[in-house]
Specification:
The complex is a heterodimer of chains A (213) and B (478). By secondary structure, chain A is an alpha/beta fold. Chain A has one domain: NagB/RpiA/CoA transferase-like (Rossmann fold, 3-Layer(aba) Sandwich), CATH 3.40.50. Chain A contains 6 helices and 12 strands. In chain A, the strands form 3 sheets. Chain A has a 6-stranded parallel beta sheet with strand order 1-12-7-4-2-3, sandwiched between helices. In chain A, helix 4 links the parallel strand 2 and strand 3. Chain A starts with a helix and ends with a strand. By secondary structure, chain B is of the alpha/beta class. Among the domains of chain B are: 251 residues, NagB/RpiA/CoA transferase-like (Rossmann fold), CATH 3.40.50.10420; 58 residues, no CATH class. Helix content of chain B is 51%, strand content 10%. Chain B is built from 22 helices and 10 strands. In chain B, the strands form 2 sheets. In chain B, strands 1-10-7-4-2-3 form a 6-stranded parallel beta sheet, sandwiched between helices. Chain B has a 4-stranded mixed beta sheet with strand order 8-5-6-9. In chain B, helix 3 packs across helix 12 and helix 16 packs across helix 18. Chain B is globular, with a radius of gyration of 26 Å. The termini of chain B are far apart. Classes of the chains: A alpha/beta (213), B alpha/beta (478). The interface between A and B is large, with 79 and 99 residues. Strand 9 of chain A pairs antiparallel with strand 9 of chain B.
Chain lengths: 213, 478
């Protein structure tokens, strides 16, 4: 069997025997800086806007829904099942379809709709990143197929950066089959290094932070 | 070096458009990297490199343990790990699976590992359509070329060449605007994503404890390849393992910065198995192919094992004076630049291309930018000595051998050396400071000396030799 042969080859090459425990791994290296929430908001917005994403910081869920409505601007939209979107009233907006639990229906809707609306499990200030964990509340395709993606994120979920994320979620595989970190709109520079947005994923990204800083 | 290679390289050097394209692109990538690893921007950069090196070293030295670990974790997530010794085994596995599931169309996101085993050709021979979906990879697939650069595969092509290619292969109008070209590719490939039965991705990291692959990208094609089709196959070399998800906090800070100067690429996917109960979308089946293809050979070599630490960021290519001149297609295998010069001979055998470790000036720039601190120049030297020991170059350059023997004889005799350097400064052509001596005076510029200097320039002679300066200094302090 290739498997056994390969493992045997690796063991022989390394001078290890079958079942030998590993040497102890270098300790985990995570450092979380103390950064006040106002600074975190400012950095998050600055990093994302440098990537040509649009950001907003609003105080109340109602204002968040208004913002989303203005971006949708009468077009079709698909919203995820995130409870926070319902709480904000986003799912009740005109033209917004939601409540998909079945893969093919969701996929059909997402391949034709103009706007995908989601929340995010976390946001990382340091790099302007959204963290999307697949679950019954958040599907993979809503932030991927439509040309416009809007994410509505309560401020409590705004972390400093990767180190804090991996402290809160030490092993994403324990809770999901897919965790995606999104940093700005889809882009490419494969032809003559000329930047083009929206090559396969959304070319337009809006992030609304909600809450009192 | 075989003449065929010399001729090809000369053609590259004479191609002004290509030289400009490669020089500009690599220069920009270099500068982007430098901007984001500067001490005031990322003070912990050197610590991150040290940590990344330690993690890779640990994983490689205990690789059998981590391979079994990841296999168990993938199974726990509902997926399956497939160990493949070479490209044949990879192709067999995929062909069988495609046949069993009735899949005819495969979407692929960028993977150097699949380039290594020519997966697309193998699948096409069996009438499967395998479509590259990264824009650069899509272009070179249409052009039937191999990647020019680890990170930017179509770096050598102009928009006009892309326009010709799209017109010919896709039957669209002659479109030279890059934005519009991109949208043509988007529309064509979007249909493929939604129709494909299998999606194949590479893996930048394989997390042993999680049974997960991590894929970084900017376009979204890897997300689509791993989310839209019913089957997701991830393929990785066995050296891509890292112990824990938390180690990503180190590696992700280095990879994007070193590759393109991005603190985070647009999409970083952490994918651990098929869709779980309650999740709305995602693949129904997940396979992790772990490929050997020469890697276990390298593992046995303690001194050169660190070649396997590479995370394929391409920073060494961008900084390499040789790569920047000869480009990516003059290296004999899919991996180019300094990392290609060290892994190609080790994966496919030093005998194959014994000249490859010599395509370096040993300037050390590659080691300086390597995010996992691979000592590339040292490994190049070791490979050179192996090549020489195997006598593969025997007889190829007797003059050079003789010259070096003479050189070492002179070097061991200080007075003779001094006389020789006096002679050299006497005959050396006068050039302005900062310029180079491009050829020697006529009476010396003959035969093997001429051949040797035709590809080498010398710095101008200083006004005073080091020995003279040293004597003056000793005299002054006395």
């Amino acid at each position: 069997m290739p498997r056994d042969q390969m493992l045997h080859k690796v063991q022989t090459a390394l001078g290890r025997s079958a079942g030998q425990p590993p040497a102890s791994a270098p300790p985990v290296w995570l450092r979380i800086p103390e950064i006040p929430v106002e600074r975190r908001i400012a950095t998050f917005r600055e990093k994302l806007e440098a990537l040509a994403a649009k950001t907003a910081h609003v105080r109340t869920p109602r204002e968040a829904a208004n913002y989303v409505e203005s971006v949708i601007a009468g077009r079709d939209a698909v919203a995820s099942n995130a409870p926070y979107l319902a709480e904000c009233g986003v799912t009740a907006l005109a033209g917004v379809r939601t409540g998909f639990t079945e893969s093919s229906a969701l996929r059909a809707a997402c391949s034709t709709t103009a706007v995908g609306v989601t929340s995010a499990d976390y946001a990382l200030s340091e790099t302007g990143t959204l963290v999307m964990i697949a679950s019954p509340s958040e599907a993979r395709l809503i932030s991927l197929l439509p040309p416009v993606h809007i994410a509505v994120v309560p401020l409590e979920r705004l972390l400093t950066g990767l180190d804090e994320l991996f402290t809160r979620v030490p092993d994403p595989a324990a809770i999901t089959s897919s965790m995606v970190m999104i940093t700005g709109p889809s882009r490419t520079a494969d032809i003559e290094q000329i930047l083009v947005r929206g090559v396969h994923g959304p070319g337009e990204l809006h992030v609304v932070l909600v809450g009192e800083g | 070096m075989p003449t065929a290679y010399t001729e090809k390289i000369n053609r590259t050097i004479a191609d002004a458009d290509l030289q400009l394209a490669v020089y500009t692109a690599t220069g920009r990538l270099q500068q982007n990297r430098r901007n984001v690893v500067a001490p005031d921007v990322l003070p912990e950069y050197q610590d991150l490199r040290t940590q990344a090196n330690a993690l890779k070293k640990h994983t490689i030295e205990n690789l059998d343990y981590y391979l079994e670990r990841v296999e168990a974790a993938v199974a726990h997530n509902g997926g399956k790990t497939v160990f493949c010794r070479d490209g044949d085994e990879v192709a067999d596995f995929i062909l069988n699976l495609a046949k069993e599931r009735g899949a005819h169309l495969i979407v692929k996101s960028k993977s150097m590992t699949t380039e290594e085993v020519h997966l697309n050709d193998r699948l096409e021979q069996h009438h499967l359509e395998a479509v590259e979906t990264d824009l650069g990879e899509y272009i070179i697939q249409l052009a039937h070329e191999r990647p020019y650069h680890i990170v930017a595969p179509a770096l050598h092509m102009t928009r006009y060449q892309v326009a010709d290619l799209f017109e010919k292969k896709l039957g669209v109008g002659h479109e030279v605007v890059v934005e519009k070209q991109t949208m043509i590719a988007r529309a064509t490939l979007r249909e493929k994503f939604l129709a494909a039965g299998i999606g194949i991705t590479g893996a930048n990291f394989v997390v042993a404890e999680s049974g997960a692959v991590v894929v970084v990208e900017n376009e979204g094609n890897a997300r689509l390849s791993s989310s839209a089709p019913k089957i997701h196959i991830a393929i990785a070399g066995i050296e891509k393992l890292i112990p824990r998800a938390q180690d990503l906090a180190v590696f992700l800070k280095l990879l994007g910065r070193s590759a393109t100067g991005q603190p985070m690429t647009v999409y970083t996917s952490f994918l651990s198995g098929p869709r779980r109960e309650g999740e709305i979308d995602g693949p129904e089946e997940f396979y992790l192919i772990l490929l050997d293809n020469g890697r276990t050979k390298l593992l046995a070599d303690r001194d050169k094992r660190e070649s396997l630490y590479c995370i394929r960021c391409g920073a060494c290519l961008n900084t390499c004076p040789v790569y920047r001149k000869i480009g990516g297609h003059n290296y004999p295998w899919v991996y180019s630049g300094p990392i290609g010069a060290i892994i190609t001979p080790q994966f496919v055998g030093v005998q194959q291309d014994p000249w490859l470790p010599f395509t370096s000036s040993l300037c050390g720039a590659c080691a300086e930018v390597c995010p996992v601190k691979i000592d590339i120049p040292r490994i190049l030297l070791e490979l050179r000595s192996e090549a020489v020991e195997m006598k593969t170059r025997e007889g190829s350059n007797k003059w050079e051998k003789l010259a070096f023997r003479l050189w070492s004889w002179v070097m061991k005799r200080p007075r003779l050396y001094e006389a020789a350097s006096l002679f050299a400064s006497g005959v050396a052509p006068a050039v302005e400071a900062g310029k180079w001596v491009r050829s020697l005076p006529g009476f010396m510029n003959v035969g093997p000396v001429k051949a040797w200097t035709s590809v080498r320039d010398l710095p101008p002679q200083p006004e005073q030799s080091f020995r003279a300066l040293w004597r003056a200094r000793q005299g002054g302090s006395r």
